[in-house]
Design goal:
This protein is α/β, with parallel strands linked by helices. Helix content is 34%, strand content 13%. It is built from 8 helices and 4 strands. The protein has helices at 24-34, 46-50, 53-62, 77-85, 100-107, 124-128, 147-150, 158-164; strands at residues 40-42, 66-72, 110-114, 133-139. Strands 1-2-4-3 form a 4-stranded parallel beta sheet. Helix 6 (124-128) links the parallel strand 3 (110-114) and strand 4.
């Protein structure tokens, strides 16, 4: 996300909060319908994408030009690192590597699997004249963690503050 930019403040919509798994496609559809003069681009994780296939079908059915850049690490990436940080096993945060390019194509969209920068050359002609929905299935290593994510574990980071504070929803005894 560090390398994405928007042309102006109206060109960026954030779907609720960090780690809002599965909410991005619905938010993106609203943005695309509100501003049909702009190409809508969404970068969900693969877990969120699996939770949002119904919304993907809506883009396809309405023929909305839309670019989905799936960050596919075959895991709930944030949970992999959060569990590891607290010393818990993270094996349940991994799942099979879904082929989102094939899923998108089967649903009526276009799809490209990206394993290297060179694979993005296939996207150039679509970007010149966006038509319909395009899904990029970007394969990434789940063991790699961005330097920015390490700040989550800083003593004053949101995660550490959350771990120290009492739950706003106490469980009944």
């Amino acid at each position: 996300i560090l390398y994405l930019s928007a042309p102006d403040a109206q060109g960026f919509v954030f779907s609720n909060d960090f780690m809002a798994v599965g909410l991005g496609l619905g938010t993106a559809f609203g943005a695309a319908v509100a501003r049909p003069d702009r190409l809508t681009v969404l970068a969900p994780g693969d877990g969120g994408m699996m939770m949002s296939l119904g919304e993907l079908e809506t883009f396809i059915r309405y023929k909305v030009p839309f670019l989905v850049v799936v960050i596919n690490d075959a895991a709930y990436g944030a949970e992999v690192h959060l569990l590891k940080n607290v010393g818990l096993p993270n094996d349940r945060a991994f799942f099979r590597d879904n082929d989102f390019a094939a899923i998108a194509t089967a649903m009526g969209a276009q799809g490209i699997t990206v394993r290297s920068v060179g694979d993005l050359d296939q996207l150039r002609s679509w970007l010149d004249a966006p038509r319909g929905t395009m899904v990029l299935d970007c394969k990434v290593d789940p063991q790699l963690r961005g330097a920015w994510f390490g700040k989550v574990f800083d003593p004053d980071g949101w995660y550490q503050r959350m771990c120290r504070s009492p739950s706003p929803f106490p469980l009944p005894r």
